[in-house]
Design a protein that fits this description.
Layout: H1 3-31, H2 43-46, H3 48-53, E1 56-57, E2 62-63, H4 65-94, H5 105-113, H6 115-127
Antiparallel strand pairs: 1-2
Length: about 130
């Protein structure tokens, strides 16, 4: 991938993330009582199963501390695994042979000097005539 297309795809991804953040913020700001205190709290309706499982503290309607710590540990472990995998993949590609590019100029000159190219160019000339 070229540097230009890479930067374009990075900009597209960045724009999508910004749009997703804005949409999520707007949704939460309009509906969630934890984000905007003027909204009614709907946690009890939406999180009954999470409360029964112990993920949400019914007293404060926030995630229970022990689950936050577990999430942090999982994230750390997954991030370390991805970093290790990324390093391993990089090493595999670094071990590949590097082949210098072939000099294509002689082959192109031979192709252009050949009868097929001459015929094609003479036929093509009739198609490229611009009416005056």
């Amino acid at each position: 991938m070229s540097e230009r297309s890479s930067s374009r795809s990075g900009l597209k991804t960045s724009a999508k993330l910004a749009r997703a953040r804005r949409d999520l913020h707007n949704f939460m700001n309009e509906r969630c009582g934890l984000v905007n205190r003027t909204n009614p709290c709907r946690c009890v309706k939406k999180t009954r199963g999470f409360m029964q499982a112990g993920y949400v503290d019914p007293g404060s309607l926030l995630f229970a501390r022990e689950h936050l710590e577990q999430v942090r540990e999982v994230v750390r472990t997954k991030a370390e695994a991805l970093t290790t995998l990324d390093a391993q993949c990089s090493e595999v590609f670094r071990q590949h042979a590097f082949y210098p590019p072939r000099d294509l100029v002689p082959a192109l000159r031979q192709l252009l000097a050949g009868p097929s190219c001459s015929l094609w160019l003479s036929l093509g000339a009739t198609f490229w005539v611009i009416p005056g």
